[in-house]
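Input/output pair, single chain:
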Amino acid sequence: MTRARVRPGTIALWAAFVAVHAVIAWFGWVLPSQPMGDVVLVYQPWSHSALTGGAIVGITEPWVYPQLALIPMIVAHLLATPLVGSMGATSAYLVAWAVLVTVLDLIGFAVLVGRGRTHRRRSAGWFWCGALLLLGPIAMYRLDAITVPLAVIGGLWLATRPAVGAALLTIGAWIKIWPAALVLAAVIAVKQRIRILLAAAAVTAAAIVVLLLLGADRELFGFLGRQTGRGLQIEAVAATPFLWLALAGRASIVYSYDILTFQIEAPGASVVSAVLTPLMVLVAAAVATVGCVKAVRGATWQRLFPPLALTLVTVLIVTNKVGSPQFQTWLIAPIILWLVLDRTRAVTPALLVLGLCALTFLVYPLTYDALLRAEPLPVLLLSARNILLVVLAVVSTAALLRVPATSRSR
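Output:
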């Protein structure tokens, strides 16, 4: 037997992926606006409280995240424990978090690229490198980073291991809600939809049973209410006109100590915030309906799943009242899956996502302090980013509408 040779280009790709993680980890320490602030200001205290007999977020007190989000925070805390004596608790936790994200990404990268035997997977790998580097430290130092490799692996396994793939996506959704969009797209587009549904239901049922046993009856789905109760965050697409009003002195940027974000305070902002959540549901339902029609008419899953998944995820961002910079990480997995399944048609959306990552990096952390003062340059950069998000939604929707039916449907 002969061993499969690793292509020289694949070795360079692996080296680039590791180097990118080292660079963005370092960026978190040296760039302004504390891009890794959430990790030590909220993740570390939450995990410390849970491990030392204090309040457990999502179980004994309200929380903004699904309850499984606490698991990677606790894992990072345990990884940091041996390092505390040499570098202090804060630094140790930051290093442990960076290591945890890097290890998970490497596992996802191994499933995606492996020995690099196909050009499509190598292209997807280079895109992943570029997206992380352009997005900067926010791609690592946020909870969303944990869900990206889960979404990549789960999406890649939908065809060959549909139950396992769906289970991973559902676990991701119990950490941060957005992978539920990929589960929905899979149920619509993939032929093994019954197995996908059963796997997703089994993971959800197991999570609910465990949480109830831990005493989370009152807070079981509390994260949904906490999301709907938010105000209009300054980075949200719908907040763009209010930023220009703030630039003119007719709106204010205020900090919410309840949600720990900066929000818009202006006439009409609360109305816009209240409308966005039902609008999100309606638009997502419309996109899902289009996907269902395409599936009924016999569209192949390789053509239908990628644009459907990307459109659903983009809709979650465009119609969201929050719009945090780390939301751009949500776009990485759908593009990777599209490049693997249908590379030619994925090029334009991939370039748009790379542009979104770059613009987001320019806003956060590089000019974020100036944005909080409503200065012209960051307001212009953020407006361009938000317009590009709308463009991506239009492009992905158009690709979804162009998905052809097969002869079977005719």
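The CA atoms of residues 184 and 246 lie 38 Å apart. Strands lie at 252-256, 261-265.
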